[in-house]
Write a structure and sequence with these properties.
Elements: E1 5-9, H1 10-20, E2 30-35, H2 43-46, E3 49-53, H3 66-79, H4 83-91, E4 96-101, H5 106-120, E5 125-131, H6 138-154, E6 158-163, H7 172-185, H8 200-207, E7 211-220, H9 223-236, E8 252-261, H10 264-277, E9 282-292, E10 299-308, E11 344-350, E12 356-362
Bound molecules: guanosine-5'-triphosphate and magnesium ion.
The site of guanosine-5'-triphosphate (GTP) has 24 residues, from helix 1, helix 5 and helix 7.
Length: 363
């Protein structure tokens, strides 16, 4: 049976791949990390993760420049650095998941050519995008809005968004929640049951729904706490909640719910009725997995909703000028003036044996 493939891009993507590598439920997944620095993956995780550095000239990193990130990726793509990764993606169990921050340069830039290539190959690709907090600097927000525009142009239809919290560098909770979400959408959280069950095809239908999806999981010692946990993760968690006014009358959502508890059949409504009552748009299909199991008194629930509109992102409409600069007062484009407009060019020169050598130039 073919394996799932997950590709992490840039620092954020790589850190999350490292969390995924620790999850027993995901041990069969093929993991890739692509970054423009070498230090992100430590020796411990090297055995389970294939890392591909995309350093292209004497300077590491992208300088938060998405164009440079994309150019470095494309240069390595041309050199054939991703051949094995693309082979694995072509053979993979669908969908292929790609994870990146939207705010930096390497991941946010690379994910566009990566998705374009995968789509051209006919691979179903689902991006999980970590957006900056609303308090993060302007450049992070520009990179985010440009990424959403680019992914729309590439034809990405189904995607997931996590938003970092302001004022913290503790990314462990979000990174772990993303690993939870992946267990969920790859079908690793639905146990065997003779009652209603969610199978791979149900998940496929759910994840073919165009739009954003949210997925949450919770564990608790009793049903009441579990119900509250699921609702608070859904409506006040790290995946931005939707706004009812952004959903049109003809839109619809798909949902998937699972409950693992000793009286799961009788308790199902107690866990999900409240959440479902707050979803006021058309509900086209609702998949359920009901598993009656005594898990030492612990109950576990999961919830996915697909078909949601894009979350709010911070749109900045400012004109910049550099203080004291010789060009002071001259109107500029929407990007800060100090943003370098460098472009990558790839030149070919023969080496001493007459073989053609490609060279990456950033100028
Ligand atoms: N959730 C999460 N966010 C992170 C993590 N590391 C960095 N960030 C956030 O990600 C954004 C920066 O993106 P990076 O992933 O570091 O950027 P990159 O893709 O490596 O691109 P460069 O700009 O070239 O370094 C900032 O908003 C950070 O707050 C992480 O492990 N998890
Ligand atoms: Mg980086």
């Amino acid at each position: 049976m073919s394996k799932n493939v997950i590709i992490g891009l840039g620092n954020t993507g790589t850190q999350i791949i490292k969390v995924i590598a620790t999850r027993p439920l995901l041990k069969d997944v093929k993991l890739y990390s692509v970054d423009s620095v070498l230090s992100s993956v430590d020796l411990d995780s090297l055995t389970s993760i294939t890392t591909i550095p995309i350093i292209s000239d004497t300077k590491c990193g992208s300088g938060r420049d998405r164009d440079r990130g994309a150019a470095m990726f494309s240069y390595h793509e041309e050199l054939g650095s991703f051949e094995k990764m693309y082979e694995d993606a072509a053979d993979a169990k669908s969908p292929v998941i790609v994870i990146t921050s939207s705010a930096g340069g390497t991941g946010s830039g690379s994910v566009v050519p990566l998705c374009r290539t995968l789509k051209k190959m006919g691979v179903d690709v689902i991006p999980i995008i970590v957006t900056p907090s609303m308090e993060d600097p302007d450049s992070y927000q520009f990179n985010t809005s440009d990424l959403f525009v680019d992914l729309g142009e590439v034809g990405i239809e189904t995607y997931n968004v996590f938003r970092n919290k302001a004022g913290t560098f503790n990314y462990a909770p979000i990174n772990n929640e993303i690993a939870d979400l992946i267990e969920l959408i790859l079908g690793k959280r639905y146990g065997e049951t003779k009652l209603d069950s969610i199978d791979d095809q149900d998940l496929d239908n759910l994840l073919s729904t165009s739009g954003r999806f949210i997925g949450v999981t919770a564990k608790a010692p009793d049903i009441e706490t579990l119900s509250r946990e699921i609702a608070s993760k859904l409506f006040a968690g790290n995946q931005p909640v939707w706004k009812d006014e952004d959903i049109e009358a003809t839109n619809f959502v798909m949902t998937a719910m699972s409950l693992k508890s000793i009286f799961a059949d009788a308790d199902f409504g107690k866990v999900f009725d409240e959440v479902m009552s707050r979803i006021t748009c058309n509900k086209y299909e609702s998949f359920k997995n009901i598993e009656k199991i005594d898990n030492n008194g612990e109950c576990e629930a999961t919830f996915i909703i697909a078909g949601l509109p894009r979350p709010d992102i911070k749109i900045i409409d400012t004109e910049y000028s550099e203080v004291g600069g010789i060009n002071k007062g001259i109107n500029r484009s929407k990007r800060p003036g100090m943003t370098r407009k460098k472009k990558a060019t790839i030149t070919e020169q023969p080496d001493e044996f007459g073989n053609s050598i490609k060279k990456f130039n950033w100028h």
